[in-house]
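Quick start: what a row looks like.
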Amino acid sequence: QVQLVESGGSSVQAGESLRLSCVISGYSYRIGCMAWFRQAPGKEREGVADIYTGDGTADYADSVQGRFQISFEHARDTLYLQMHSLKPEDTATYYCAAECTVINHKLLPHATYWGQGTQVTVSS
């Protein structure tokens, strides 16, 4: 059974950086697409970034382009989201996902496996 466990969420000030981690376990084949989503209170879930673990190809939402970086470390079976220049509007629960779908560099709001979420709060 595939499991995803996120960590790294915290409360920070605007302009600061934070790194989220997601350890994946229980899979017996290479999972190609992994992603980070986020959901703020009262808002729909939003795709933040995705990566194809085979070659590291990544896509980003316009709202985080240039500030966030997604990566996958095979040796640790861990997905990362490095976030810089955080803004109050980045405040949300962040979810790790596996077996996602990307069409024309657009991350669809669906995935087979999800983590439990980690809270990021950015204050001004």
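That is the whole record. The chain has a mean pLDDT of 95. The first strand starts at residue 3 and ends at 7.
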